[in-house]
Specification:
Length: 219
């Protein structure tokens, strides 16, 4: 049984991963760091703390980390009024809610950023609960956000399914004991998601919706 469906947001429901990559690339450049765009893209989905540790030298001046984050947020914020939800994303949330599943958004975004994402998604009528980076002690791939989503849904791990686009989503779910369904809309390959442990991989949220009754999301 699937009593709750937990969704990552960036790259899964809303088309933002490459916008994040561009904003991080420019933020790094402004602070003297030359990081390849491809490396940045592969780190999207982590919390900013882990992303910085993955992409920047360990002996860097960490006092500069907060200004880098602030630069990324300012650059990415320029896109907020133009964010676009993926086709089928809102309808998929409503389909889950219609079958009686609790729908939870589990994002590493901050509260202000998450409001912009929810406005782009325009499906608050289907959403039971929401988590953000401020709710978790550690960001993905740590399981904190997934565990909080389970608490807010009020269901045990085995009765929930998570939908995400990143390897970090799959790793967080494995630690939390939750099945993870992958989508390719964030630019990570099917092979990588399957090797990380995704129980199924779909092209997009629209693809899940088209095959809903046979998917792990179906109750």
């Amino acid at each position: 049984m699937t009593d709750a469906v937990i969704f990552d947001v960036d790259g899964t429901l809303v088309d933002t991963d490459y916008l994040h990559a561009v904003a991080w690339w420019e933020a790094f450049r402004q602070h003297g760091h030359d990081v390849a765009m491809a490396e940045i893209h592969r780190a999207i989905g982590m919390g900013s703390d882990k992303l910085l540790d993955r992409l920047l030298p360990p002996d860097r001046d960490r006092d500069d980390d907060d200004p880098v984050r602030a630069a990324h947020l300012a650059l990415y914020g320029q896109y907020w009024t133009r964010l676009r939800a993926f086709d089928g994303a809102a309808d998929l949330l409503r389909r889950c809610a219609a079958q009686g599943s609790r729908v939870v958004l589990a994002s590493s975004a901050g509260d202000t950023e998450l409001r912009a994402l929810r406005a782009a998604l325009d499906a608050d009528d289907a959403i039971t609960a929401v988590t953000s980076s401020s709710d978790a002690e550690q960001s993905k791939p740590a399981p904190d956000i997934v565990n909080i989503a389970l608490e807010r849904a009020g269901v045990p791990p085995e009765r929930a399914v998570f939908v995400g686009d990143a390897v970090w989503d799959v790793e967080a779910c494995k630690k939390a004991g939750v099945r993870c369904v992958g989508v390719l809309s964030g630019g990570i390959s099917r092979q990588e998601l399957e090797e990380a442990g995704a129980v199924a991989v779909y092209q997009s949220t629209a693809d899940i919706l088209a095959h809903f009754d046979a998917s792990p999301l179906s109750a």
